[in-house]
């Protein structure tokens, strides 16, 4: 039985799922039928289908996919134009991005935590990075990758507000949403109820909307770049190696206005992230596969099928895997928030205080929705692009390998003793990183979390191995081999 079926004939006052583009995006996942007879190994058919993919019937397409690992229905992906020359503004931003003198320690730049060699994610496996004036203070959360953020929508709650100028405040929207049943997320199925959930925004809790607004956060954060004030940052910019560029772009008067100076500097950093192609390369094996320029191995293909299978891993229910109608490459996130009940990470010093809980949207780092306790424990669904290059996973950095992440998804409720520690009385402390009163917020309806204690896991060890193989195809920098392009016969 599933919630969305119960809610199906939705009340007329509630906008239908179709009204929301964000919800609509979720409807068209591939439902991949696993049952493909190996006997259909008709080589002639596959050659024909490979050469004329548009005319091949779906069943033949599936056979071709299974036999050759090629995408039977290649698409043209809409990539942003490759910039060969950065604007002067973006070049300035690049210098700021790598400038260690802008930190209190003099040893830390944006690139220290967002390493270009690691898809602009953390350079190491530390659960959180060390910062502050002497680089001895633990940060609060692991740094996300800075790739593909140009597609991140602004933070909002509930169905898309569209261009409505009278859009309610966040708190009003949250109140209105509080009585509405949460839409179930099933790969390949459009939710019957409108998704009254928070979406979009930057940071794990969505508390900043623009790259410009975001960038000032780490500059002032005492456990990160640890500048005491805007004036202190402005003073450093004034004597920086690139101060002439500021004068050139904004006039020499800019140095008399510290707020404006820092604001322009942050805008420049944002421009750099928008313009430089290294922030949105779309060069993963999966991108090339979508375009018919690479073939997946049997393991990768099987992993993709499980990833998209609503009854198995159901990863695509939240980590969207299909290109948009307009050929926009899939981002492997629905930009929505979920409470997954990730275990507490006791290697973070902050957790030694038993009252400390990082609850995402409802605080403590975000403050505007503190009263909206229905969102306590919810964090932004991250992209899985380049996930395989990370050595630290989830908002509290509790895991260090994809195997650990997969065990969590597979066993959280089925065998919690494998996921959570035991307390002094030997009792398994399930969902131990969220106060008991908020644990109803934890997702127990979407596969693979719809299983109960003692149920059969949704994934076997082999399934997990193949899903990880697939996640690895989302790493940028794959070199497509022209020999496997679809226009050459298999
Ligand atoms: C000490 C490590 C550190 C430094 C230095 C740092 N960041 Fe971050 N960055 C983080 C962490 C941690 C987060 C996530 C914080 C959160 O969710 O509360 C983050 C988040 C972000 C995000 C949002 C990403 C997302 O997916 O939502 C952007 C953009 C960003 N940082 C850009 C920058 C820029 C630009 C600089 C330099 C001005 C910088 N960072 C310096 C650690 C760092
Ligand atoms: C119900 C929505 C949902 C489903 C289904 C789901 N995820 Fe996630 N995923 C999330 C959210 C939300 C987070 C962040 C949670 C947090 O940090 O508290 C996340 C985090 C992750 C991360 C960590 C990424 C990082 O940068 O730290 C990986 C890897 C991941 N998911 C893979 C998968 C795979 C593989 C599947 C299928 C087995 C899956 N997810 C199914 C919502 C989902």
Structure in words:
The structure is a single chain. The chain has helices spanning 3-6, 21-25, 43-51, 58-68, 88-97, 110-113, 170-177, 211-220, 230-238, 243-250, 258-275, 285-290, 298-308, 402-411, 461-472; strands at residues 130-131, 137-138, 156-157, 198-199, 337-338, 379-380. With 490 residues, it is mainly α. It folds into 3 domains: 34-73, no CATH class; 88-150 and 206-279, Cytochrome c-like domain (Cytochrome Bc1 Complex, Chain D, domain 2), CATH 1.10.760; 285-490, Orthogonal Bundle (Cytochrome Bc1 Complex, Chain D, domain 2), CATH 1.10.760.10. The strands form 3 sheets. It has a two-stranded antiparallel sheet with strand order 1-2. Helix 5 packs across helix 11. The model is unreliable at 1-50, 160-167 and 485-490 (pLDDT under 50). One heme C binds next to helix 6 and helix 8. One heme C binds next to helix 14 and helix 15.
């Amino acid at each position: 039985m599933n919630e969305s079926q119960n809610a199906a004939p939705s009340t007329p006052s509630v906008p239908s799922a179709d009204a929301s583009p964000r919800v609509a995006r979720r409807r068209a996942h591939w439902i991949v039928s696993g049952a493909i007879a190996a006997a259909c190994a008709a080589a002639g058919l596959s050659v024909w289908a490979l050469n004329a993919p548009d005319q091949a019937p779906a069943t033949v397409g599936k056979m071709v996919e299974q036999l050759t690992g090629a995408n039977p229905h290649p698409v043209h992906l809409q990539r942003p134009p490759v910039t060969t020359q950065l604007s002067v503004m973006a070049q300035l931003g690049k210098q700021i991005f790598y400038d260690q003198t802008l930190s209190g320690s003099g040893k830390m730049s944006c690139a220290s935590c967002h390493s270009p060699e690691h898809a602009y994610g953390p350079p190491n496996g530390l659960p959180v990075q060390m910062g502050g004036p002497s680089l001895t203070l633990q940060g609060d959360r692991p740094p996300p990758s800075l790739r593909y953020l140009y597609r991140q929508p602004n933070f909002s709650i509930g169905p898309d507000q569209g261009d409505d100028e009278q859009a309610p405040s966040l708190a009003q929207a949250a109140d209105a949403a509080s009585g509405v049943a949460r839409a179930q997320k099933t790969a390949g199925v459009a939710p019957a109820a409108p998704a009254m959930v928070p979406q979009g925004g930057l940071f794990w809790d969505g508390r900043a909307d623009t790259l410009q607004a975001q960038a000032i956060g780490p500059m002032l954060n005492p456990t990160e770049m640890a500048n005491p004030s805007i004036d202190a940052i402005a003073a450093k910019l004034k004597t920086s190696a690139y101060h002439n560029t500021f004068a050139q772009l904004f006039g020499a008067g800019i140095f008399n206005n510290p707020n404006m100076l820092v604001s322009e500097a942050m805008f420049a950093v944002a421009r750099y992230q928008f313009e430089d192609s290294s922030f949105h390369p779309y060069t993963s094996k999966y991108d090339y596969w979508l375009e018919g320029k690479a073939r997946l191995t049997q393991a990768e293909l099987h992993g993709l099928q499980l990833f998209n299978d609503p009854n198995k891993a159901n990863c695509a229910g939240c980590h969207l895997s299909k290109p948009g109608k307009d050929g926009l490459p899939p981002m492997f996130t629905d930009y929505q928030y979920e409470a997954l009940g990730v275990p507490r990470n006791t290697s973070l010093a902050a957790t030694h205080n038993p009252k400390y809980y990082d609850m995402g949207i409802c605080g403590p780092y975000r403050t505007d929705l503190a009263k909206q306790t229905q969102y306590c424990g919810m964090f932004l669904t991250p992209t899985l692009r380049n996930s395989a290059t990370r050595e630290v996973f989830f908002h509290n950095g509790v895991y260090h390998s994809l195997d650990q992440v997969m065990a969590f998804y597979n066993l959280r409720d089925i065998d919690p003793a494998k996921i959570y520690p035991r307390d002094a009385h030997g009792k398994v402390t399930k969902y131990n990183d969220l106060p008991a009163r908020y644990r109803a917020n934890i997702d127990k309806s979407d596969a693979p979390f719809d299983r109960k204690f003692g149920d059969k896991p949704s994934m076997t060890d082999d399934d997990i191995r193949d899903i990880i193989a697939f996640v690895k195809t989302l790493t940028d920098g794959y070199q497509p081999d022209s020999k496997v392009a679809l226009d050459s016969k298999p």
